[in-house]
Amino acid sequence: MNTKNIAAISLIVMAAGFVITLFLPDKGIFFVLKGGFEAGLVGGIADWFAVTALFRHPFGLKIPHTSLLLKNRDKIIRSLISAMENELLNKQSIENKLKSLNILRLSVSLLTKALQKRAVRRQLLQLLIEQVRSAPADRLAALVRNGIKAYAGKVDLKTTADRLLTGAMENRYDEKAFDYALDEALSWVRKPQTGMMLGKLAAEKLSELNVGGFAGFAFQAFAGFMSEDKLGGILQNLLLSAIGDLRRTDNAHRAAILQEIRVRLLMLPDDESKMNKLREWIDRKLDDEPFERFVLARLEEARLLLLQKLEQEQANGGRMVFTAYRSFIRGLSADSERVAEWEERLLTFVIDLIDRNHYRIGQLVKDNLEQMDDASLVRMLEEKVGKDLQWIRVNGALCGFAVGVALSLIQLW
């Protein structure tokens, strides 16, 4: 039964008992009962008045010191906020509780239980797929380009070029590049059309020479004797022989050419003019629209590939996700020092977050209470504590009845 109804019934019982005893003989047991019901009625009415005065004006009459909760609304809100911030949810108690929880281990345990469920893994992958599909590639491309530009602007080209060129020579990339150029040249010289082209060029240049005397006569005789095919063949064989010699590692000319290449490369970082031109070229290329289109195209390709992998994994129930997660957790658990370090970092982060936002607890309580009108506030308080307060009325009636009985017995004695 509703406690408010019980309290009302107790008051009615006392009133009815008192009325009935008025018509009974004023002696003996009736005298005792009359005194009990009278005192119980007075106690019930007094406690009803007291309980009602907490929430509203009794009978709507603005009697002094009634409707106490509404009159002291601001004071109550401040006291409630103070109790929440300084006693119930003070910073130190929260920190102590967090330290005893082992946040990292608790989080890992909860996450592991969640990821063991196929539906959770599929839902997680679906959220990830939606985020990847809706991610603005143009914005990301701009961020990537700006990031590359910012990085390129901070890079010391001289140091970077020196490091790259030194590393290339230590790995003999210069020699490999030289051999590649020789192989390409060898492939080109061996072509029949190359011999024809060389012979034609040689014949044209020979015809342009003007040498006098006996040497000129001999040269003209030689030129007349040699056809374009023979000249081309001779030049082709000469080039093939020269390239073959340069491909031998013990060739002195090869060593001299490589040495010259290396010297030039090592001197390149110290050439400020070339370094400035290189930086200008890099900046110009990074600002060009083709570079942004290139980045955007690569990001779209990466998006499609990632979506394909995620959708495939979702169809398989996210088994690889859980396998990867489990392997990561096992590896982490084996390193107790790292676990302790991460636990400390996470705890420090959470405590710092609480320190910076602890005031929001009281602010939230205040905002919610201020949004409620008087009627809503009274109704909420009555729902929370009204039931217990109604028992005061019941106890007042019963206690008054007992006291009245006791006093009547004393009077009879």
Write structural notes for this entry.
The chain is 86% helix and 0% strand. It has 413 residues and is mostly helical. Helix 1 runs antiparallel to helix 2. 10% of the residues are buried. The model has no long low-confidence stretch (mean pLDDT 77).
Give keywords.
mainly alpha; 413 residues
Strand content: under 5%
Shape, please? rod-shaped
DSSP, total strands: 0
Radius of gyration equals 49 Å
Question: Would you list the SSEs in sequence order as H and E?
Answer: HHHHHHHHHHHHHHHHHHHH
Largest sheet: none
Distance between the termini: 40 Å
Number of helices, counting only DSSP H or I runs of 4 residues or more: 20
Question: Could you say which structural class the secondary elements and strand pairing correspond to?
Answer: mainly alpha
Summed over residues and divided by their number, the pLDDT gives a mean of 77
Spans of at least 5 consecutive residues whose pLDDT stays below 50 are none
Helical fraction: over 70%
Offer a quick outline of the entry.
With 413 residues, the chain is an all-alpha fold.
Mind sketching the topology for me?
Elements: H1 3-22, H2 28-55, H3 68-71, H4 73-88, H5 91-101, H6 103-115, H7 118-134, H8 137-154, H9 157-170, H10 173-189, H11 192-208, H12 213-225, H13 228-247, H14 252-267, H15 272-287, H16 289-315, H17 319-334, H18 336-357, H19 359-370, H20 374-412
Helix pairs in contact: 1-2, 1-20, 2-20, 4-19, 5-18, 7-16, 8-15, 8-16, 10-13, 11-13
